[in-house]
Amino acid sequence: MATRVWLDGMVTDAAGARVPVFDRGFLYGDSIFEATRTWGGVPLFLSEHLDRLERSAASVELTPPPRAEIEAATLATLAAANQDPGQGESNLRIIVTRGEGEQGLDPALAGAPRLVVIVREVALPAPELYLTGAKLAVVRRRKDAGRDHSVKSSNYLENLLALAEAKRDGAHEAVMLDGEGRVAEGTTSNLFLVKAGRVVTPDVGVGLLPGITRAQVMDAARGDGIVVEESRPRPADLVGADELFLTSSVRGVLPVTRLEAGGEHRIGDGRPGPVTRRLMELYQARCERDAAAFRARHG
Ligand SMILES: Cc1ncc(COP(=O)(O)O)c(C=O)c1O
Predict the structure, then answer these.
(1) Which of 104, 122, 255, 258 keeps 20 to 30 A from 274, CA to CA?
(2) 202 CB less than 6 Å from ligand 1?
(3) Residue 189: domain span
């Protein structure tokens, strides 16, 4: 599959996708975004992602292009990237910056918002990881209490440094804590534990991005009669859990079987547990349904 980018009203290839240095996304991280993947070639939970993009825009007082325009640009870019049949699945990133203008923090200096859509081949975790489980590491870097973490802005410095810290511990993803030492989320994922058959995930008040996958998984679990609690677990609760897993639009439900938290801990019996495996199945079924509904709507 070719990488294709929507930029300033047209589709271009990766080499042609150049944003001016005076774009505020570059200068100040003054932009918001969404990221998802395709499922069977169609964008997964696109309307939920566009809803969240609108919420992020409202939170940072940015007026995005009309939703229909963003959706049309996304589909045009996806079609251009997938011109040859038999291609794999795509990663989609929809970015809206406040645009460019005279240098200076004042948002009033911005011109029109800039829409960028990047479509490229999706990079998924190795399939074995879904069978053996990933490793998490609780990192020392704490989440900034002064920020609204429910906004998906392009300020990922805190998260990327946390990921680098986790990688030094040989982990696939970091566990980020809030200032009080409570578990918040991963650097690009939400976290869940299972204890005595109940599913527990940090509540949004701790300071986290309410994931689209998180919401799907919570809903699927409740629909299956599994109790789901939103609370304020601490690293010790992760260590003592029967099962752990993470969720994100790209990775779906990924089991976690090892945790670095002042030493390496094995979670449960060291293999993905039954509740996690059930939720993986239920989530996949939801992805199939969402893709079928998208195809039905778009012919
Ligand atoms: C900080 C953060 N938390 C959680 C998630 C998971 O969200 P979603 O399920 O919507 O992909 C992401 C996704 O990239 C993220 O960046």
Answers:
(1) 122
(2) no
(3) 127-287
Q: Give dist(CA 214, CA 48) in Å, integer.
A: 12
Query: Do 54 and 76 belong together in one domain?
Result: yes
Is any atom of ligand 1 closer than 6 Å to the C-beta of 249?
Answer: yes
139 and 283 in a single domain? The answer is: yes
- pTM, 2 dp: 0.97
pLDDT tens digits along 33-84: 999 999 999 999 999 999 999 999 999 999 999 999 999 999 999 999 998 7
Q: What is the domain-level CATH number for residue 161?
A: 3.20.10.10
Query: Tokens 């109940």 label which residue?
Result: 198
pLDDT per residue as tens digits for the range 194-241: 999 999 999 999 999 999 999 999 999 999 999 999 999 999 999 999
Q: Is 209 in the pocket of ligand 1 (CB under 6 A)?
A: yes
In total, how many domains does the chain have? 2
- Is 240 within the bounds of a domain? yes
Indicate if ligand 1 lies below 6 Å from the C-beta of 190.
yes
C-alpha of residue 176 to centroid of ligand 1, in Å: 13
161-177 b/e with 16+ CB inside 10 Å = b? Answer: ebbebbeeeebbbbbbb
Mean pLDDT for 266-282 is 98
Task: Record the tokens describing residue 148, joined without a space.
Answer: 């609204």
Q: For 144-191, give the DSSP string.
A: PTTS-TTS-BS--HHHHHHHHHHHHTT-SEEEEE-TTS-EEE-SSSEE
